[in-house]
Amino acid sequence: MDIKVLGTGCAKCKKLEQLTRTAVSELGIEATIEKVEDIYKIMQFGVMNTPALVVDGKVVMSGRLPGDKELKELLS
Predict the structure, then answer these.
(1) In what side-by-side order are the strands of the sheet with 2-6?
(2) Active site residue 10
(3) Percent share of the chain, pLDDT over 70
(4) Which of 20, 37, 54, 55 has a 20 to 30 A CA-CA distance from 44?
(5) CA geometry: angle at 23 spanning 28 and 19, to 5°?
């Protein structure tokens, strides 16, 4: 699984990266997690509100922090 956390470096973006890494570990998923901070790369995904989460090339969430249960569902 390829996971990208999109965000320019704000506190919520950093928190989403941390939550994602924790959820992946707890679920036992084999995944690569990349933090994308370049605004031009973020815009290529069509994301206008960060933080955003991209799983296998598809934007699954943007503009907010998901709860733990929701995040795990998005990654499953």
Answers:
(1) 32-36, 2-6, 52-55, 58-62
(2) yes
(3) 100
(4) 20
(5) 155
> How far apart are alpha carbons 8 and 62 in whole angstroms?
13
Is the pLDDT score of 9 beyond 90?
no
Catalytic residue among 1, 10, 39, 48: 10
In a domain? residue 10: yes
Asked, for residue 13, whether it belongs to a domain, the answer is yes
Query: Whole-structure pTM over 0.85, yes or no?
Result: yes
Range of the domain at 12: 2-68
Q: Which CATH number is 21's domain given?
A: 3.40.30.10
Q: Taking residues 17-41, what's their average pLDDT?
A: 96
Residue 22 above 90 pLDDT? yes
Tally of domains in the chain: 1
